[in-house]
């Protein structure tokens, strides 16, 4: 049986996950070595060595969650633990939080910093997937089937936004919205949710106007000004984006060569975190960018495919949530560094420096690999030992009525 399980794993997503992580490690060393020496008086490989440890720990978690049956996460005790831990972590940031770049998003634990909002994203995926998979028989009842989990999603996003970390709050909300849209509810129910959202926005509008000076702070407005007119504000708000453009333009097709970036020499802030793709474009050109985009795109599309193949609504929504998290986060990061959207300070999945980010992504990839394994195992081995039972058209229609998540397929 163990051999059958090993044969059922989708090794393609595992290989792509590892390739992206190793590629990110190399680029972190290249992007951070000058800054480590000039700004922090650290050894040039300081961030490289820390990220190497992060990746090693992350891979151990990946192996554990890839082997541990994902269906156990649906238990009530586990869901209570996940949700309570997420809320406690977000509240702890307000009490013990460590501020970096105008955001109090980290908790200092010894020499390490933990970002609870990263773990909250994965908690939301597990919670919403489990709850909506259990509510399939009354998924279209707003008061009982839809709104309670949605209110928890909004509450978690509010706590993240109060840090303030609007980028992560937006990603968390969009992940939850994807799971809700793919939960099997009818379009009529989704339309009602949209109307409720518009009503809520109208109610909150006066509050936003009264508190506009606190909501639209100088830092947040500066990011919008830098997005709208980067070259006009190139000495202040648009400084990052202008230097990102210069890095991308300098790379061309082939790039300047690994380690040869000019913009990382003090011109491009956050070169090894939020703007690491600009360094990749400058040093490795279009080919380096295509490698990253191809790897990320493959994981996202493969996750969607795994979702459509799953016979279990819980596994299907888990796969949708994980692939959505990676895709949305990649779009927001790449959109910010290329000027498509305002800069939000979101790391690029698997590539940017960060312990919490790579740990959460590794756990998510382990869960995705486990969902895929169960799908392939059932298709390859269980169906061979199953004797088909003739079914009438009426029985088939009734079975489809009881499985609204088939809309995912």
UniProtKB/TrEMBL annotation:
<keyword id="KW-0808">Transferase</keyword>
<feature type="transmembrane region" description="Helical">
    <location>
        <begin position="117"/>
        <end position="133"/>
    </location>
</feature>
<dbReference type="InterPro" id="IPR001182">
    <property type="entry name" value="FtsW/RodA"/>
</dbReference>
<feature type="transmembrane region" description="Helical">
    <location>
        <begin position="53"/>
        <end position="71"/>
    </location>
</feature>
<feature type="transmembrane region" description="Helical">
    <location>
        <begin position="78"/>
        <end position="97"/>
    </location>
</feature>
<keyword id="KW-0812">Transmembrane</keyword>
<feature type="transmembrane region" description="Helical">
    <location>
        <begin position="12"/>
        <end position="33"/>
    </location>
</feature>
<keyword id="KW-0328">Glycosyltransferase</keyword>
<feature type="region of interest" description="Disordered">
    <location>
        <begin position="388"/>
        <end position="409"/>
    </location>
</feature>
<feature type="transmembrane region" description="Helical">
    <location>
        <begin position="352"/>
        <end position="374"/>
    </location>
</feature>
<keyword id="KW-1133">Transmembrane helix</keyword>
<comment type="function">
    <text>Peptidoglycan polymerase that is essential for cell division.</text>
</comment>
<feature type="compositionally biased region" description="Basic and acidic residues">
    <location>
        <begin position="399"/>
        <end position="409"/>
    </location>
</feature>
<feature type="transmembrane region" description="Helical">
    <location>
        <begin position="275"/>
        <end position="301"/>
    </location>
</feature>
<keyword id="KW-0133">Cell shape</keyword>
<dbReference type="Pfam" id="PF01098">
    <property type="entry name" value="FTSW_RODA_SPOVE"/>
</dbReference>
<feature type="transmembrane region" description="Helical">
    <location>
        <begin position="145"/>
        <end position="162"/>
    </location>
</feature>
<keyword id="KW-0573">Peptidoglycan synthesis</keyword>
<feature type="transmembrane region" description="Helical">
    <location>
        <begin position="313"/>
        <end position="332"/>
    </location>
</feature>
<dbReference type="InterPro" id="IPR018365">
    <property type="entry name" value="Cell_cycle_FtsW-rel_CS"/>
</dbReference>
<protein>
    <recommendedName>
        <fullName>Probable peptidoglycan glycosyltransferase FtsW</fullName>
        <ecNumber>2.4.99.28</ecNumber>
    </recommendedName>
</protein>
<feature type="transmembrane region" description="Helical">
    <location>
        <begin position="193"/>
        <end position="210"/>
    </location>
</feature>
<feature type="transmembrane region" description="Helical">
    <location>
        <begin position="168"/>
        <end position="186"/>
    </location>
</feature>
<comment type="similarity">
    <text>Belongs to the SEDS family. FtsW subfamily.</text>
</comment>
<keyword id="KW-0472">Membrane</keyword>
